[in-house]
Design goal:
Largest sheet: 2 strands, parallel
Strand order of the largest sheet: 1-2
Helix content: 25-40%
Strand content: 15-25%
Number of helices: 5
Distance between the termini: 36 Å
Oligomer: single chain
Order of helices and strands: HHEHEHEEEEH
Radius of gyration: 14 Å
């Protein structure tokens, strides 16, 4: 999460929103976010419903994974395991943001 925090501005430049999800409860998520000064939201999924929907639920835990979801709601890229710690593959999968002409 700290690696995503450190490049948050690069995601923002691509008009991308970072959202962390884990199977921890809300209080644990809040403490974790505060301890790392995370500039993006974390969602609590204590029942594992989101983890199951994305195919990463592994018993009482979720396997580490990063999903890049496009503006149409479709998964554009999945980075799993140890590779998911590096934010660059997810960042590379985000299309460049095009400013509106006005």
């Amino acid at each position: 999460m700290s690696a995503l925090r450190d490049v948050q501005s690069k995601f923002a430049d691509k008009n991308a929103q970072v959202l962390g999800v884990s199977m921890d409860d809300l209080d644990t998520q809040k403490r974790f976010a505060q301890s790392l000064s995370l500039p993006f939201p974390l969602a609590a999924d204590p029942k594992g419903e989101v983890a199951e929907a994305f195919g990463v639920k592994n018993g009482a835990y979720a396997n580490r994974a990063t999903f890049v979801i496009g503006p149409d709601g479709q998964v554009v890229k999945v980075v799993e395991g140890h590779d998911a710690i590096d934010p660059n593959p997810a960042l590379d999968a985000c299309p460049a943001h095009k400013a509106k002409k006005g």
